[in-house]
Write a structure and sequence with these properties.
homodimer; 33% strand; transferase (chains A, B); three-stranded antiparallel sheet; globular
Chain lengths: 162, 162
């Protein structure tokens, strides 16, 4: 991890107290073919390899109905990332970009988001295509793609008709 | 909050230890026109009202370059949500769906995600359209929309040519 922790030319870190505003509960583990950061694709592709979202047993019942969706949003925790950079130099060439102008895993809250294609669900494991993260990445959430999802609840006063 | 905490017919909660796997740092606050859950739109719309992402000063420099993007991904913390439901009944009619088959704010890690249109950036405040959350919602992250973003770093071995 030492190479990941070193600052590149013109990168800017800030001093921060330990984070303490809210706490996450990992809900499972992501299995992918990639065991080293340098092997991960830069972005996932829907024709990429099958990956597994392995849910902890307590959450198995929460998958009911997910099979109705073709595209899912997956949230995960990029647990190997430093969190204190405000400016980053992706090419190590001295040119920097603000952290929020990048999709780098290095960010104050290293939450990865991906839109993936659902391949199948079997005994608490969701098989998908389109991820780009390391094998063993902690899983935070699964939701239907917002574009495909029709709210199941009654309309509310602030809801526009479409 | 009591009404939010009550279980509806056939909803299923699980017993959980307090979450302790990772910790979040709020990076700012979201300002929206909605002060009560019942007034929030069900989903944000790109022609909805302007909302403000008010960044804490330590992160102002991290916005550099964000103005180049038209569409942004925003992550926020739904701090009023219970986190222990595996089956939910959005219509309170006894019919339930698994939590992961819904985009409900009630989920093990209540992280909201939205794709929003950038209106402008001024002195650490990002003005956007397309949010649906309560005024005062804690902000977790801002990223360029994955569809519009071209990675700034050199290609890697796992990257497909497009």
């Amino acid at each position: 991890m030492s190479s990941v922790q070193e600052l590149r030319v013109n990168e800017q870190a800030v001093e921060l107290a330990p984070p303490s505003d809210a706490t996450l509960r990992f809900i499972g583990t992501i299995r992918t073919p990639w065991h080293d950061r340098k092997d991960c694709p830069r972005q996932g592709h829907h024709d990429g390899p099958e990956c597994q979202l392995v849910l902890d047993p307590v959450w198995h019942d929460a998958l009911e109905g997910l099979e109705d969706y073709d595209t899912l949003e997956v949230l995960y925790w990029l647990d190997q990332s430093r969190r204190d950079l405000v400016r980053q130099s992706p090419k190590s060439d001295g040119r920097t970009f603000g952290t929020f102008a990048l999709r780098s895993p290095v960010r104050p809250n290293p939450i990865g988001t991906a839109m993936v294609k659902l391949v199948g669900i079997n005994n608490g494991t969701v098989v998908v295509r389109g991820l780009d993260c390391l094998d063993g990445t902690p899983l935070l959430d699964i939701k239907p793609d917002r574009c495909a999802f029709s709210p199941k609840a009654p309309p509310k006063s602030g809801t526009q008709t479409e």
